[in-house]
Amino acid sequence: MLHLRIISPPATTEAVEKLLTADDAVTHVVVLAGTARDPVGDLVLCDVVREGASDIIERLRELGIERDGSIMLERVDTTLSASAARAEKRVPGLGVDAVVWEEIEHTTAAESELSGAFLTFMIVATAIAGIGVLLDQPILIVGAMVVGPEFGPLAALCVGVVRRRWTLVRHALIALTVGFAAGMVATVATTRLLDALGLVEKSMLLSERPLTSFIWQPDALSWVVGFLAGIAGMLSLTSAKAGTLVGVLISVTTVPAAANAAVALAYGVTNEAAGSALQLLINVAAIVAAGVLTLLVQTFGRRPGRRSARRAT
User: What's the pTM?
Assistant: First the structure.
């Protein structure tokens, strides 16, 4: 369930109240007239089941609330209310399967910002993976996968394509391109520095690495794993199950592939660099394809803003 905090202009409050009280998905409606100061208006509070949230929010936006007032969403983890239980029974479907577009778009947009923190995480993750490749240490590879923030822009890319939010798509592509480029350049520099200090050497890359050689030797399973990870990752976002996302992050080899390519370029091993680059492209393509398909399946037959359920009188 979600909690909505709405600031409505006085002239629109009556329409907002009618909209909320007439909908099956809404409960706990409270109207506090004249309490809002910035922007000036009435404060309207309510709870809405996730299955009906996108519809309610879209219709509030049609009333101009987003422009003249505000709409805030908060997740409600626990609700002890017979009224809330009745609302959940009235609306078909399960909340865990519902896609609240406004929530997903806001989350993924924030994750796709090309910030200093994002670039730092990418550089650190790629550098860790680069050392893991040379040492043939899966533990370091897994650690780099968890640190890497690349799934945020990948998810934003999927949402942008499905929702036709081309600005979101552009931001996601820029974040991915610049992020991977910065991580690889930093890893090349790190590798050369460590080599100059005598901590690593080219023979470590050329020697047998049975535990991490899969990173630069893609096959059909690379696509399968990336595709399945894309499905799980998108479901973890739309169903608000963030804990599942950790498992997704350690199942794909995007950051390790970029790191292996960077290390190989630092030592001039072009065939391994090419194989790692191909692994990276396969994983990115598989995740995006799976994410887009998952969102389309979740929203098939559900046109946001046109749900017909109304509260019986």
Answer: 0.81
- pLDDT tens digit sequence for 79-119: 888 998 888 888 876 766 677 888 888 888 888 888 999 99
Phi, psi angles (nearest 5°) of residue 159 = -65, -40
Amino acid symbol at 221 = L
The per-residue pLDDT for range 210-269, each reduced to its tens digit, is 988 889 999 888 899 899 988 888 888 877 655 545 555 666 789 999 999 999 999 999
270-272-274-275 Cα dihedral, nearest 10 degrees = 170
CB 53 within 8 A of CB 106: no
Name the CA dihedral angle for 6, 8, 13, 17, rounded to a multiple of 10 degrees.
Answer: -10
Alpha carbon 211 to its chain centroid, in Å, reads 29
On whether the CB atoms of residues 156 and 168 are closer than 8 A, the answer is: yes
